[in-house]
Write a structure and sequence with these properties.
heterodimer; A: mainly alpha; MetI-like fold; 13 helices; B: 6-stranded mixed beta sheet; 10 helices
Chain lengths: 275, 262
């Protein structure tokens, strides 16, 4: 492997076959990186200052961090058991159930927003049941969290399920034979072994929740400090001026990048300690 | 195989010749960016325009006027822009993207209060909009309709007393990015009331309405113009002409707008 790497970087003229890999990669990299670079270039350092002076911008950032953290927490607390059951048990209708769980990943956010509104809105299918309990969801921060969980938790469940399923069956059987119950199996064997998959699933879900826009604006509306998260503030900012939208976007790019960086560090750290 | 290819080439040649002989001009697409409130009226106008110009397809992009303006500034290939307010159009004129003198006001619009069919909050008058606990959605301040609604509340403030405006604004549960979103939330019964364009209310007949007196209302002027960068200037002009024609204005009137050409 190391020899291969050496030849890749040290040979003066790359053979034709190498370019077969490099050229398409460069194209995709350009598409992924150039828009972000252009955004940062246009916004500049002045953009960050503009962000701080924008009314509501800091409130939007705080709300985004709060709601996305709670969403990912809900995803972990309810999604881990679900993924565990899906990985451990066989039952009729399991395939259908897994498809239903995966569906929000591929649905456009606007469909998610309408579905949430039709289900849990005041006039929705379950609206009268909720209001008899004194709960009204639309236009509340809870609605933001529900919208984010709806679109991001499936990513977590999927990652955790694959993590659990990849564990060597023989190890699990051995533990079972030695008298471990389901909880011990989960706590001492499968959760530690699937830890990385669970962590990366959580990161994916978290960043998806931070970026959630369509379902939020449809189900929760847009009110500063209550339901106006960063993506909504950016969209509304665009209606005031491009520079405001740029400033807000830059900050969101930095925040997302930092989150990814920190969690990547955590992942690597975990790797090092376990090996 | 050779035979097959030559037949194929011949076929393509004949077909393309037919195509040229059948239609005098190539099919063309006219791209129109129009304010969200124009959705129904312009769709109908577009159909009529296509009927009288068989080789033309009218492609619409309906959205918030500010968003459309940004897209045009960023180089969207647009032939005609119809804005819900002067500000966005004037910005394009100032940047020479719309030739000066091209801009024409083609309709006016006023605002109205809408309530869901069942009117769960029991709103009976403009004054009721200040009732505590009412769920009011408005268009965001950044959107023309949102600005107009706040201007109207300011005027009503003088009539109903000093705290009216503040009480109404305290009831706002959402500032929608698009006036149609506000209409939908009232239509679904999720919100108790909204202040929208008369034309929006006409588009959803089952809504309950409360008129806003003319002296308290706002007259929104919609400008339309051909873009300087239009690749179909003749078609663009013909479309604008049609919008200002008696037929076009009648369609606009049908959808709740006030025509400028009587």
């Amino acid at each position: 492997m190391s020899q291969l790497r050496k030849s890749f970087f040290h040979s003066k003229v790359l053979p034709f076959t190498e370019w077969l890999f490099i050229l398409p990669s460069l194209l995709l990299l350009a598409l992924l990186a150039l828009p972000i670079l252009a955004l940062l270039w246009r916004a500049g350092a002045a953009g960050m200052l503009l962000f701080l002076t924008q009314p509501g911008a800091v409130a939007a950032l705080r709300l985004s961090l709060l709601t996305s953290s709670l969403s990912v927490l809900i995803a972990i607390l309810t999604g881990t058991p679900l993924a565990f059951v899906l990985a451990r048990r066989k039952f009729t209708g399991k395939t259908i159930l897994e498809l239903v769980i995966d569906l929000p990943i591929v649905l456009p956010p606007s469909v998610a927003g309408i579905a949430l509104l039709i289900a849990f809105g005041r006039q929705g299918v379950f609206g009268s049941t909720l209001s008899s309990l004194g709960i009204t969801l639309p236009f509340t921060t809870t609605a933001v969290i529900l919208a984010q969980t709806f679109v991001s938790a499936p990513l977590f469940v999927r990652a955790a399920r694959i993590g659990f399923a990849e564990i060597d069956h023989q190890i699990v059987e051995a533990a079972y034979v030695e008298g471990s119950n389901e909880w011990q199996l989960f706590r001492f064997l499968m959760f530690p072994l699937a830890g990385r998959a669970i962590l990366s699933g959580a990161i994916l879900a978290w960043t998806r929740a931070i970026g959630e826009f369509g379902a939020t604006i449809l189900f929760a509306g847009n009110l500063e400090g209550v339901t106006q998260t960063m993506p909504l503030a950016i969209y509304l900012g665009l209606e005031r001026s491009l520079s405001i939208a740029l400033a807000l976007s830059t900050v969101l790019v930095f925040v997302s990048f930092l989150l990814l960086l920190v969690t990547r560090r955590l992942e690597n750290h975990k790797d090092g300690s376990s090996s | 195989m050779k035979h097959f290819i030559s037949i194929l080439l011949l076929l393509i040649l004949v077909l393309s010749a037919c195509n040229g002989a059948n239609t005098n001009s190539e099919p063309r697409t006219l791209t129109v960016y129009a304010a969200a409130s124009l959705t129904e009226a312009f769709t109908e106008i577009g159909d009529a325009f296509e009927a009288s110009h068989p080789d033309v397809t009218v492609a619409f992009n309906f959205g918030g006027s500010q968003n459309l303006r940004t897209q045009i500034e960023q180089g969207a290939p647009v032939d005609v822009f119809a804005s819900a307010n002067a500000k966005e159009m004037d910005a394009l004129v100032a940047q020479n993207m719309v030739p000066s003198g091209e801009r024409k006001v083609f309709l006016t619009n006023q605002l109205i209060v809408i309530l869901p069919e069942e009117n769960p909050a029991g709103v009976a008058s403009l004054e009721d909009l200040g009732k505590p606990g009412l769920k009011l959605v408005l268009a965001a301040e950044e959107v023309p309709a949102g600005r107009y609604a706040r201007e109207i509340l300011e005027k009503l403030n003088a009539m109903f007393g000093a705290e009216y405006r503040d009480k109404v604004l305290a009831n706002v549960v959402s500032n929608e990015d698009n006036i149609r979103q506000a209409v939908t939330k009232v239509q679904l019964g999720e919100a108790d009331a909204s202040i929208v364009y008369v034309s929006d209310a006409v588009a959803v007949p089952e809504l309950q309405k409360i008129q806003i007196p003319a002296e308290m209302n706002v007259v929104a002027e919609y400008p339309i113009a051909r873009l300087g960068g239009s690749s179909n200037p003749d078609l663009a002009n013909a479309f604008i002409e049609y919008v200002l024609s008696p037929d076009g204005q009648a369609t606009l009137k049908k959808w709740g707008f006030t025509p400028v050409v009587p």
